[in-house]
Amino acid sequence: MRSSNIKAIYQALANSEDEDSSSISPGKNRLAMDKHLLCLMVIILFTCVGYFLGQATLSRGCNETYSGPTIPLAIQRKVFQYNRTFGADPGIDSNTQAAWDSLVPLGQGTVRYPAGSKQLYTLSVVHQLHCLWSIHQNYYRSTHMHMDPERLDDDDDDDDYAEHTMSHMRHCFDYLRQSLMCAADSSLEPVDSMLGGVTGWGNERFCRDYAALVTWAENRRVSNIGGFS
């Protein structure tokens, strides 16, 4: 926008010179042109100074409001493939819990940043995975209770625990909603004409290097706790 304004001013000055050229002597015309060029240079100078000062202010503002680290992660091509183990009932498939735990960095994604600081952080992606894992666990727990009324009576004695679980689930629903919208994965998934919808499997997309992020977190961990459980 600033460059277009400068161009407009320059054109206005040029037009003014053309209109008055018939009544101004060559010497006066040269002097007027020099003044116009000087004015233009001053305008450009102040515009540039204003721009860089604005950028510096914006940069300081970002640093004041964003305290997270800049973690350089490579972008990788990935093809999503269905893995039944992560969706299976942990009470039936003994590999399910181990599969979920394998996703978690040693230290559960809680890090000290920067080194030597008292401030601790948890990686958002680990928080998000923990929410999804909690929903997975409570889904099958509720299924078992529905299928076994006697078990429901035994497990429902602790009302505080039940309320805590519901509160946590409400938190996770909205937290995951906002996390998904924040990431806004714009990969295009082809519609399966036979299904009349999409599965998300089999098409390529670009993903950040999760393994590198795990390494980054483990190198800065504050504990040796592993897994979700």
| Beta-strand fraction estimate | 5-15%
**Strands across the major sheet, in which order?**
1-4
State the low-pLDDT regions, or none: 1-33, 39-64
Q: What is the structural class? A: mainly alpha
Tell me what the structure shows:
The chain has a domain at 84-147 and 159-219. It has helices at 2-20, 26-65, 84-87, 95-101, 124-147, 149-155, 159-183, 210-218; strands spanning 75-79, 110-112, 120-122, 204-208. It is mainly α and 229 residues long. Mean pLDDT is 77; it is low at 1-33 and 39-64. The longest helix is centred in the N-terminal third of the chain and has 40 residues, at 26-65. The chain is globular, with a radius of gyration of 31 Å. It is built from eight helices and four strands. Strands 1-4 form a two-stranded antiparallel ribbon. A two-stranded antiparallel ribbon has the order 2-3. One of its GO terms (biological process) is mycotoxin biosynthetic process.
